[in-house]
Amino acid sequence: MTAGAPAIELRDVTRSFPGPPEVQALKGVSVSIADGEYVSITGPSGSGKSTMLNILGLLDRPTVGEYWLGGVLSSSLDEDARAAVRARHLGFVFQAFHLMSRRNVLENVLLPMLYNGTPRTEREPRARAALERVGLGHRIDFLPGTLSGGERQRVAVARAVASRPRVLLADEPTGNLDQTTSAEIMALFEELHADGLTLVVITHDRDVARRASRRIRLADGRVSEPG
Amino acid sequence: MTARDTRPLRALRGWAHHQPALLRRLRRPVPPPDDRPVEPADRFRFSDLLGEATADIGSRPGRLVMTIAGTVLGISALITTIGLAQTTAGQIARQFDADAATQLVVTPRTASTGGGAVVATGALPWDAVPRLERLAGIESAALLAEVSLPGAVVTTVPVNDPSQPPSAPPPVYAASEALLDTIGGRLSTGRFFDAGHDLRADRVAVLGVRAADRLGVQRVDTQPSVFVDGIAYAVLGVIDSVDARAELLNAVVLPTGTARADFRLSAPGDAQARIAVGAGPQLRGQAALALAPDDPESLDVSAPDGRSQLGRDVQADVNGVFVILSAVVLVAGGVGIANVTMLSVMERVGEIGLRRAIGATRRQIAGQFVAESVVVGLLGGLIGAALGVFAVVAISAVRAWTPVVDPWIALGGALLGAVVGLVAGGFPARRAARIEPVDALRGGT
User: Fold this and answer.
1) pLDDT digits (tens, 9 = 90+) for A2-34
2) Minimum mean pLDDT among A10-14, A110-114, B260-264, B397-401: which range?
3) For B98-121, what is each residue's pLDDT tens digit?
4) How far apart are CA B122 and CA B238, in angstroms?
5) Cis peptide before B403 (omega within 30 of 0)
6) Residue of A7, A54, A84 lying closest to B41 (CB–CB)
7) Gap from A165 CA to chain B (nearest CA, Å)
């Protein structure tokens, strides 16, 4: 990863899904996000938001175009190297939380550190610190099923940041939450941004999008409003 | 990305400004940024794998029981069948050995005369018993001879009753005092004659159980007598059963000395011996030489061939059938694990997607499912082996057998469970590793 390079850079990225009929979810998208930026990506359903997040998160590959992550061309990475980058440099927050229902809160937050090489002795202190930070230090032994939606999403945020990623990718993080809880999560994101974390939030909620320092709007697979 | 990753390199460059030679070297080898290798996230150690594989095993007890049931059944069936095969093999061998493989009989060779009569061409010495007992492998020996009494009457009533229907009298045998021990005989009442009776030629007799029935002798405490050719013999006991020489159950048995005195018995008919298991082949030559050193060919020796072939065949058949049955059950157990593991993979698609998203490689996902399957198989194997050993002991206790289970079989059974888990987990693990995180995460958990 190269110092000084944008954290994220899409160069004329197209993503097609073979049909029939063939669908182009992204059509020649070029976006650059600097290190430490807080960007929201909005757009109606089917505009290509999730496809873009999957490419940004190295979960999918562009059909055409280049994706540079921290100055590294993602197509130069093999499958294991992509997993390594996800483990060390990316954090994910999903709309559906994706917490493991049979593991308690602490175990859920510990999970990413299994794969990113965090020394065993550092894992639990880091997980506890992350949970303290999201205000769930008193809930570490709880199972996710016993928590409210907002608390579950805060566990997911703690899990994403405990391994100290450079980029946090959030896919509709407030999609399953009420307004008050959404505001709590957004406040948490602002704190993380203030700490220097690069944040990319995909949302269809305009209020959530407005909290970002830059907004990118997608429509029909193209960037309609570069923020 | 990153300041954190490049900090050591930048610090080194800053210091290198004061080191011209090092600076030149540093400038040369720095690769283009996009070619810089990324360290693989392979710090997922075996202990981590084991921790992840066992973390959720007990979280669904019902599912766990269902998963391991097949392996438990398979392994316990295997251990039980192998254990029972070993136990019954011991039992069968013991039975065959007791009934057939431990009896040696020496008889004088016979030849046919020109007139059609069969005559003995050799003779056993009267001291055959002590001569045989000196041989290693002989546990007990006795003399036995049928006393030829043509036209003699054997009865308990010394009255000649012409109105009585004619019937064949029971045969009369002469035997030495160790006969009962040699042929594994048991008395229903009374006692067997001893060396004193033999030496003094006392007029005593022991009846076989069927002869006693025919002669109407029910008990010996009333001191009944049996008349053989008009001579009274006190009945000492009744032989109830024998392991060899079943013809004695229908006979009147007298001491050898008595038969020699009263009926001029000229020579013993057979020398009967109980031998150690496996001593037959060796004793076959030695017995004839010990009894007729000048002409061992004049004697026929009937001795068993070590372990009976029939016993070996039965044991092999029993083992074969049991092992095939167990293998079938074990395959069913493996299919059970594979099915439940496959079901688990399908149920945990979201979890697999999450793990892949946060950095797990395909190999780590496959490893986790294989490890889970192996742990489940090992657990099933351990429980199955314990149940199998218990079943062998319980069945043996009920049948009054001696349980025989090789400890390595039990240990091997537990390990076999792990192998079944390994094989059964292979296909589901491959499926799990192939799941694309994008597809998996769409479902949610």
Assistant:
1) 556 788 999 999 999 887 888 889 999 999 999
2) B397-401
3) 555 688 899 888 877 766 677 777
4) 33
5) no
6) A84
7) 10
Determine the Cα–Cα distance for residues B244 and B182; give it in Å rounded to an integer. 9
Per-residue pLDDT tens digits for B158-179 = 666 666 666 678 899 999 999 9
Tokens of B274: 């109980």
- In a domain, residue B37? The reply is no
Is the Cβ pair A94, B441 closer than 8 Å?
A: yes
pLDDT tens digit sequence for A131-165: 998 888 899 999 999 998 889 988 999 999 888 89
Cβ pairs bridging A and B (under 8 Å): 134
pLDDT tens digits, A28-63: 999 999 999 999 999 888 888 889 999 999 999 999
- The count of structural domains within chain B is 2
Kindly state whether residue A2 falls inside one of the protein's structural domains.
Answer: no
Is B26 within a domain? no
| Residue B16 covered by a domain | no
Residues in chain A within 8 Å Cβ distance of B359 = 83-84, 86-88, 112, 115-116
Whether B220 and B237 have beta carbons less than 8 Å apart is answered as yes
Look up the pTM and report it. Answer: 0.62
Please indicate whether, in this complex, the C-beta atoms of A111 and B438 are within 8 angstroms of each other. no
Looking at CA atoms only, how far is residue A58 from chain B in angstroms?
8
Q: Is B113 on the interface with A (CB under 8 A)?
A: no
Say if the Cβ atoms of B34 and A71 lie within 8 Å: yes
- Cβ contacts of A173 on chain B, cutoff 8 Å: none
From B248, B280, B305, the end of a domain falls on B305
Tell me: do B375 and B329 sit in the same domain: yes
The C-alpha atoms of residue A119 and residue A108 are separated, in whole angstroms, by: 17
Contacts of A18 (CB under 8 A, 6+ apart): none
Q: In degrees, to the nearest 5, what angle opens at C-alpha B96 toward C-alphas B91 and B102? A: 120
B193 with B260, same domain: the answer is yes
Q: Give residue-wise pLDDT tens across range B369-418.
A: 899 889 988 999 999 999 999 998 998 888 877 787 888 888 888 898 89
- Indicate yes or no: CB of A59 within 8 angstroms of CB of B44: no
Nearest to A83 among B36, B41, B52 (CB): B41
Cα diameter, chain A: 52
* Residue A90 placed within a domain: yes
pLDDT at residue B54, as a whole number: 81
B33 touches chain A (CB under 8 A): yes
**Domain interval for residue A108:** 8-225
Q: How many domains does chain A have?
A: 1
Pair B276, B130 in one domain:
yes
- A3 and B6 within 8 Å at the Cβ level: the answer is yes
Residue of chain A with shortest Cα separation from B349: A98
* Domain co-membership, B114 together with B174: yes
Answer yes or no: is A12 within a domain: yes
Q: What is the pLDDT of residues B214-249, one digit of tens each?
A: 888 888 888 889 998 888 999 999 999 988 888 899
CB contact under 8 A, A107 and B55: yes
Residue A3 lies in a domain: no
Provide the domain limits for residue B286: 103-305
Q: Cβ(B358)–Cβ(A86) under 8 Å?
A: yes
Angle, helices A120-133/A149-162, rounded to nearest 10 degrees:
140
Q: Which residue has the tokens 């888990």?
A: B421
Q: Which of B253, B270, B305 is the last residue of a domain?
A: B305
B141 plus B85 within the same structural domain: no
Verify that B131 and B181 share a domain, yes or no: yes
Q: Retrieve residue B149's tokens.
A: 């009494």
